Amino acid sequence: METTLLDKLKKIDVVLVAIPALLGVISVFIINSVVSGYSTYPRPVVVQAISFALGYALMMLAARFDVEHFSKFYRIIWILSILIQLLVFIPGLSDTRGGQSAWIDLGFTTIQPSELVKITFVISLAAYLRRHREELATLRGFIRAFMFAIPIIGLVAYIDMGAGIVVAIIFIGMVFAAGIRGWLFLRITAVVVLIFPIGYRFLQDYQTRRFQAWMNPDDLTLDEAWQLYQSKLAIGSGGIMGKGLGNGTMKEFLPVAESDFIFSMICEELGLLGGIACIVLLFLLLTRIWRAIADAKEYFSGLLCVGFMCMFGFQIFENIGMTIGVMPITGITLPFLSSGGTSVMANMIAIGLIVGCGMRSRERTYKHVDSDVPPGIPYQSKSDLMRGSASRLRNSQQ
User: The whole model's pTM is what?
Assistant: First the structure.
C-alpha cells in the first residue's frame, strides 16, 4: 500500500504542483497590500487564501479521476455548461458588478460561472473532437465542431466578453491541435478577419471605448486610456526593486487593482525583479503543461491539456499585455495572481486534470498502449497531436 502510494507520488509533476503555491503566496501579499495597505487582513485576502487551500484539495481530487471517463458523458457536460452559465439570469440570484451580471450571489459568497464553464467546455470539446477527428479535414467537419462550440462561446461572450474571448481562443487552439488542415485553418481565419468590422458594430459602448483607447493610448479623455496611463506609471515607478509592500500609491487610480491590474501593482511594489519573477513562474507553468502534452499517450488527454494551455496562455498574455498597452483593456484575470476565489479554484482543478493526465501517461495504462512498448511516445502526442492531421492520426491507428 505504502509502496503503491509512493510510486504514484513519484509520477506527479512536482514543479507543476508547486508553481501555483508560489504564485498564491505573492497573490495574497499583494492583494492585502492593495486592499488594506498591508495593515489588516480584509475579506478579499481571506477569501483568496481559503480559495488556494480548497483549490489544492480540488486539484488532488481532480488528479485522481481518469479523465477518460468524462469523455463518455460529454453531451451531459455540454448541457451542464450552458445551464451553469444561465444561472446568472435568475432574478435574485444574479449579482451585478460594473454593469455586468456575471456572478451568482450565494449569500455567504459569490461565484463566477464562466470560470467553471471554461473547464467543462475544454472537457466536452476534447471529447467531441476525439469522436469526430476524422471529419476535421473538411469544411463540413469544422462547421459541425463550430456549431457544437458556438452556443457556449456566444452565451459566455454575451455575459462577459473577456471570458467569451478566452473560450473562443480555447476552441481555436484545440481545433488546430486536433488536426484541421492548414489551408482550411487559414481560410477560416481570413473570413473571421474580414467579418470583424461587422461584429465591431454590435459591441457595447464600454467595449468600443476599450478598443478606441487601445488604438489611441494618448487620448486621456477616454477613461480606458487614462487607466492604461496610470498602469504604465505604476509599472515604471516601481523601478528595479519596487517601493515595498504597502507603499504603492497607484492603486488609488486604477479600478479593481487587486484583480485586473494586479501585475501593475506587483511591479510597483516589488519592482521589475518581482514582475520578471512572476512572468518566469507563469512561463514555467506553460512549459510544464507543454510537457504533459508531449507525454500524452491518448488523444483525449492530449487535447485536454492543449485546451488548458490555451486558456492559461491567452489569459497571461492578455492580462499582462493590457497593463502595458500591447492588448486592449479587458476584465480577463491573471491566473493564480488576480483576486477571485472562483478563478483560483477553477484554475486549480485544471492543473489537477493536467497532473492526472501526466501521471497516467507515465503509468502507461491506456488500453491501446502495449505494455511491451518502451517508455516514450508510442502513440499520439506532440509529434502526432500538435503537428498531425486527421489522416495521419488514422494511419497511426492502423
Answer: 0.85
